[in-house]
Specification:
Layout: H1 8-43, H2 51-69
Helix pairs in contact: 1-2
Length: about 70
Amino acid sequence: GQLFFATRAAAEGDLRREERDRAGRAARETALVRALRRALADAHPDHGGTADQFIQAHRCYRAALRQVRR
């Protein structure tokens, strides 16, 4: 159920902690997606990769996007 805080300061502290946690998660997810996007571009046949490398990188990228959007 519901949370109960003895003081307003305790409630605000809990909110700030949740916001920091959420911001940290978003930053890690953004970094992961950027890294996979870079790997996707590097694996592209026009940039020296092979079709198989590109397909595998694209699968990883799509899987990461699905996880981030949940």
